[in-house]
Amino acid sequence: TAAQETGEMRERVEAEQAGAIEKKMVVEEEEAKANQQKKVAGEIKADCEKDLAAALPAYEAAVEALSKLTKADVGEVRGMKTPSVGVMLTAQATCIMFEVKPYKVAAPDGKGKVDDWWGAAKGELLCDPKLIDRMKDFDKDNIPQAVIDKVMPLYSSEDFEPEKIKKASLAAMGICKWVRAMVVYDKVAKEVGPKKRKLQAAEAEVAEAEATVEAKQAELKEVMDMVADLEAQLSEANEKAKELQKKQKDCAAKLARAEKLIDGLGGEQASWTSKSNRLGKDYINLTGDILIASGIIAYLGVFTTSYRVEAVTRWLEKLVASQVPASKEFSLQGCIGDPVKMRQWVIDYLPNDSLSIDNAIILDNSRRWPLMIDPQGQANKWIKKTHGENLKVLRLNMNYVRELENAIQFGFPVLLENIEEVLDAILDPVLQKATFKQGTLLMVRLGDSTIEWNKDFKLYITTKLPNPHFPPEICVAVGILNFMATLDGLQDQMLGIVVAAEEPETEQKRINLVLDSAKAKAQLKELEDKILALLSSSTGNILDDEELIETLSNSKIMGTKIEEQVKQQEITGQQIAEVRQIYKYHALRCAALYFIIGDLCLVDPMYQFSLDWFIMMFNKSIEMAEAKESKEERFAELFRSFLSILFVMVCRGLFEKDKLLYSVMLTFKCQEMEKELKLNEVMALLTGLPGQAKEEKPPNSEWLTQVSWKRINVLQTLGDAFDGFIGEFAANLAGWQEVFDAEDPLEVDWPNNFKMKCSPIQQACLMYALRADATVKALMNVVDQKLGNFFLEPPPLNLEVCYKDSNPAIPLIYILASGSDPMADIQKLAEGLDMLANINPISLGQGQGPKAIAGVKDGGKNGKWVLLQNCHLAPSFMATLENLVEKLVPDELHENFRLWLTACPSPAFPISILQMGIKMTIEPPKGLKQALTRAYMGFDDEWFNSCKKPYEFKKMLFGLFFFHGLILERRGFGPVGWNVMYGFSEPDREISRQQLRNFLNEFEGVPWEALNYMVAQANYGGRVTDNQDVRCIVTILQDYYTPSILEPDYKFSQSGIYFSPDIDKDGSAPLSLYFDYIRSLPISTTPEVFWLHSNASLTALINEGAYITKVCGSMMSSFGAASSADDDEDAGKQKTPEEQYNEISQDLASKLPEMADQGAVLRTYPVRYDQCLNTVLHMELGKFCRLLTKLRSTCLDLGKAVKGLVVFSPDLEEVANGCLTNRIPSVWMGVSYPSLKPLLSYVEDFLLRWKFIMNWVKNDIPYMFWFSAYFFQQAFLTGVLQNYARKDKIAIDRIIWNFEVMKSDFVPTEHPERGAYSNGLFMDGARWDDENMCVADSYPKVLWSTMSPFWLRPVEKAEDKHDYDKLYNAPIYKTSERKGVLSTSGHSSNFIMYLAIPHSCQPPHSESFWTKRGVALISQTDD
């Protein structure tokens, strides 16, 4: 058999191998001897070569020198007549070397003969043309010893040196070098000769030994070849046996693999069949699905979820209509999403909502770099977690170019964060991926540098701006992604937090479950991919692919294991889901509140709160919540705790005017989440109940304004409690009049018990319609009934608590109101913490940046408080400050270090600092009583008694402090108080106080005039810019800096409550007397204290209500996502915003008149010297036509934009928002007359003005001019003056106005003899008494009164018939805002002129009385 033959052969081979081994040992021994001999010979040879190496360089140098010689050079030597000693010695040495004998010549002394070597050299050698060749070929190895002996004396001679001989002849020097080299070489050769002979003998022995070894090796080779042949035969036999064994094993293995293959693929049959069917459908739908996915990636990244769904739905409809196959329900995640990647993204802090995951898919598949709108920092956090330490985080306000270059070259990912709306131009090549080939490398230009482009480089860009407006060049270069927080994503985060806090084990299980599930599914996917790859690449017999069979086997084991895990995970997941479901509603309610906090920045740019801060407050509220027995009670307590802490922490960073607004928005959001909110009612209230009166105003309702009647009509359209309200109201006019006349309409009973039928928000709507001044209280009732009184009374700021909440790396930010200064509060806190000596205040401004940076560094090192004041005055320093604050690390700073920042509201203040810092607001003290208290707390008794005229000083000092408090409080009444909101401050008061004492000390009497001037026109008046306000402040101060104040019975107001406390004539009165008097004053003050009508408080309340409703309306964008309280039926009828503003704009467009023919008007009313009003008509008509064109074009274009026929431009967006919020868009105001009316009322007003102009065009110059109708009333007034001046040939600068007020029913039937009749004005702050023909106090609750017609009568100055002591110069303004700016023509944009009108002259009425009342005329109301 094969096995036996193999055994016999193996024995024979082993025997032959033993003989071969012995032979090999003999050969190796001989070889070792030969090698030893070889080694000895080598050493001898090396010694010889070493000796020769010393002589050869000299010889070679000599040969080189000879090679440079020519026959001419030798001839030159031969031709020497008197050779030098050196040349003679050279000639002698040459003769000796060539064994040439010297000539015998007579000795110079004549006695005998001497040797003539020179002659012999010339005759025998130098004449030989081949001398140089003979020297080169000289037999240097066999020089006779006699020759060497003869030449040695010359060799040793000093004159036989080449350098000396060189001076005589270069050729002789070369020969000299050759002789000397021969001497050196001969010496070495004689020493090397014996060694060479020894070497020859050694080499001979080596050759003999090698021959012996070679013979032995030949014998060994024969033996080895025979053994090799036998081994080959043995190997062949072994291979044959192995092949048989392998076939046997392969057969058994294939049987086992076949079994595994059947088992492994058998388990995959069901899943692969399902997947195959699904892939078949996907393949059919591939075209449409990829088309939609491409559209989403290209266009929809910037949009919200709702718009994406709407767009995709429309696209699907288009595809169906075009018969392009596509999935009926498209999902970007299902189409191109990788489940394994998506799970990893969520683990890496990507918010777990569809919008964020779709954004990540777009980012992953787009060729453009992503620019992420990320105000909450969620995308930032995800990118940083995903790339870890490899990520390079850069900002545009730092020197980033070098780091960006390195990242591009080495392939690092880069995050460019917190950009504004513009990117540096240097980034354009990177954004556009403008690469080019340079050789084999891919390059890109970055600034002046050309750098290598690494394909691993990635760029991410984020902005914190919530609604950025990027220019087109950026939009096309990057992929903009909207990473704004969504309710779903935020709810998921907060759900995890609350479950982790309340059910920590469950949340930990969930986290582990997510990680384990992700890991298992990733492994399963990897195995499946590997199987499919192996199956697709497998060739030949599949049973031969062991890797495939093993993978299938492992897949089966792993699949079984994972299926068991999945079953367990499903059970665990269901349990977790049940627990989480209990907390889901709580998380949803809490998450929804963030969108109120986030939108506060729309109110004031300083109201910035980050999502991280919001979540930190959520965690804190859970810790602070009281334990409860039941889940329901616990949830209520958790929500109460969170709502309360959110209210308190946010309120400390809000101004007083915004705290109720914040409470109202929190209430609305809570109502929405609990499905109690009726959005249509809220929006009707916040937009001012816009609409028209569909029914006539009932008779006997003079107390009810037309505006209120319109609003009551609108209420009925809201339905519910207001169904049939117009009829019910008209039937109970007397009852509703009682409500209107009531001091507090919310406290009295309403007709038919109507108040009980209304919800709080419905009550607020009705109050807005009937008594707008009660809107604020009605909104407070809404808050009170939903959230409680706590949310109407925010706790006062506790600076010590704020300090404890901070650390060295968190700045404390004071947001300043005009006229406030927190320095005293900070110093008081510092005194309690023993830090008073360590405060370093730095007022920012030009050139203060380096000082501030040094101060922060020093403070951080030495534990100081660094106070950077007025940051809003240094906008260029803000980027540096932002970097400075972000680099603050608590562990590297002194524990006592704090950074305090103060700033007035400014959009330049860094958002990141506001979000991370502790914000506090500070405002001047509210109320007259507090202002007086604060003023007297500022000094001690010693200073108080230091004046030389104590009586006058103390009486007048109280008057000054009262004046200070009064002018501050007048600001709360709007334009009736001051046209402009001035920032009167405590320093103004303090300098006036010091001046009062100094003037009284330095002057003999009381310098009333000087004091009045310094206070009213310098200290305080220096801030006053409006002429009417200057007039007012001067008038007010005269009540306090007056000799009358020294009288004991002098009162500051008609009520007699306020006066300067009576003291002894010697002025002996302690400070305590004044504190006692101040404490006795009422807490709340009435308008009469400020010399205002009681209606002024209504005006203030109406303005406050208007402010709250206006701002709340701008913050309603986050509403409507959750289910509202509207019935499903009603909800189905609700129109989309697009339908609403399209309907409103088209309705407005339909009301607009046809354009006037300005050419025809010019022909009818040409420019005439004697009729200047024609020019006024043309000017006004041109402006009206331009406004009409703008109104019509924008309204019509808005309808087209909704249909997609024109681009939806920013201007059209403004108009759309205006239609929704009932506010005039700025694009209209750019070409309009000033107006504060709501949008619908504004259009009505425009139509009335247009009608007046058209009647003028149609019927010639009117008898009565509507003073309010013009764009530019000053042109009309100038026209009237010019007509009079040209008619009577009088210089226009000699003409002034006289005014005559007519009866209210006056209707002219002809033009006056001079001037013009006008009407259309309204009086604010008083009324016109038509019976007594003078200014009189307003009726209660009547804010505007119609001014009677008046005659504008031009007269020469000499004919002025006015008795100005009996007249009040009433300023006329275009709008109730009163304040304006100077235009290019030098006129105010609001003030028109003064109208001198009579007053009664009965005390207390006087011009100063009406000036302090703030009485003015306005050309239009705000309704």
What does it look like?
The chain is an alpha/beta fold and 1423 residues long. Helix content is 57%, strand content 8%. The chain has 52 helices and 26 strands. The strands form seven sheets. A five-stranded parallel sheet has the order 4-5-9-3-10, sandwiched between helices. A hairpin with a 4-residue loop joins strand 20 (1327-1329) and strand 21. The radius of gyration is 54 Å and the shape is elongated.
Task: List the topology elements.
Blueprint: H1 2-67, H2 71-78, H3 85-97, E1 103-106, E2 113-116, H4 117-125, H5 131-136, H6 145-156, H7 162-166, H8 170-284, H9 286-299, H10 305-321, H11 332-336, H12 339-347, H13 354-365, E3 370-373, H14 378-387, E4 392-394, H15 401-410, E5 413-416, H16 428-431, E6 435-438, E7 441-446, E8 449-452, E9 458-463, H17 472-477, E10 479-482, H18 487-502, H19 504-537, H20 546-599, H21 611-624, H22 631-651, H23 656-673, H24 679-686, H25 706-717, H26 725-731, H27 733-741, H28 754-757, H29 760-770, H30 775-787, H31 799-805, E11 812-816, H32 823-832, E12 839-843, H33 849-862, E13 865-869, H34 878-886, E14 898-903, H35 911-916, E15 918-922, H36 928-936, H37 941-944, H38 950-969, H39 986-1002, H40 1008-1019, H41 1027-1037, H42 1071-1080, H43 1095-1114, H44 1128-1133, H45 1137-1151, H46 1158-1164, H47 1173-1202, H48 1210-1221, H49 1226-1229, H50 1239-1259, E16 1264-1266, H51 1273-1288, E17 1295-1301, E18 1316-1319, E19 1322-1324, E20 1327-1329, E21 1334-1336, E22 1344-1346, E23 1350-1356, E24 1367-1373, E25 1391-1398, H52 1407-1413, E26 1416-1418
Parallel strand pairs: 3-9, 3-10, 4-5, 5-9, 11-14, 11-15, 12-13, 13-14, 16-18, 24-26
Antiparallel strand pairs: 1-2, 6-7, 7-8, 17-23, 18-23, 19-22, 19-26, 20-21, 24-25
